[in-house]
TrEMBL record:
Gene3D superfamilies (UniProt xref): Cytochrome b5-like heme/steroid binding domain
Designated name of the protein: Membrane-associated progesterone receptor component 1
Signal peptide as annotated in the record: 1-22
Superkingdom of this protein's organism: Eukaryota
Similarity remark: Belongs to the cytochrome b5 family. MAPR subfamily.
SUPFAM superfamilies (alphabetical): Cytochrome b5-like heme/steroid binding domain (SSF55856)
Pfam families linked to this entry: Cyt-b5
Subcellular location: Endoplasmic reticulum
Length: 166
């Protein structure tokens, strides 16, 4: 007769194997985005950046001090339902400097890029710390430019191909 401990070990082992197989076969947009080729560096406007919000596109980009980061791997924070979801597809600089996640800290995508005027020295230092955090954790995929930039200068990165197109 199998002891209770042996039976529990077997059950845990089977659960582990089943969960590993499930991970390998799961198809969800976030996993697909993470496995797609990395986006090459591009130039974004606030309007083109807004497409990368985790809803319209599985990738999630955030601008900090006019540098655009791919934060897709942090979707639990920056994606839909996450605590920083307001920053997805947007210039998050002022909100990060103020440690505020309120929509009022975000400039409309139809307005000029926030020049960060009015921030204190401490708030700018906080923003620098956030920028360093993003530098250490995420890939820079482009730079942020005004909406009225010459269209020949603004190059959104190519969309990742779906696996069925490849």
């Amino acid at each position: 007769m199998i002891s209770l401990n042996t039976a529990l070990i077997i059950l845990v082992f089977l659960f582990f194997i089943k969960s590993m197989v499930g991970v390998a076969t799961t198809e969800n947009p976030l996993e697909q985005a993470e496995s797609d080729p990395l986006v090459i560096e591009g130039k974004f406007t606030p309007k083109t950046l807004a497409r990368y919000n985790g809803i319209d596109n599985p990738r999630i980009f955030i601008a900090v001090k006019k540098r655009v980061f791919d934060v897709t791997q942090g979707a639990t924070f920056y994606g839909p339902g996450g605590p920083y979801e307001n920053f997805a597809g947007r210039d998050a600089s002022r909100g990060l400097a103020l440690n505020s996640f309120e929509l009022s800290c975000l400039t409309s995508i139809d307005e000029p890029i926030d020049t960060l005027t009015g921030l204190t020295k401490e708030e700018l230092e906080s923003l620098d710390s956030w920028e360093q955090h993003f530098d250490n954790k995420y890939k820079v995929v482009g730079t942020l430019h005004e909406n009225n930039a010459d269209s020949s200068e603004v190059v959104p990165p190519p969309q990742p191909q779906s696996k069925k197109d490849a």
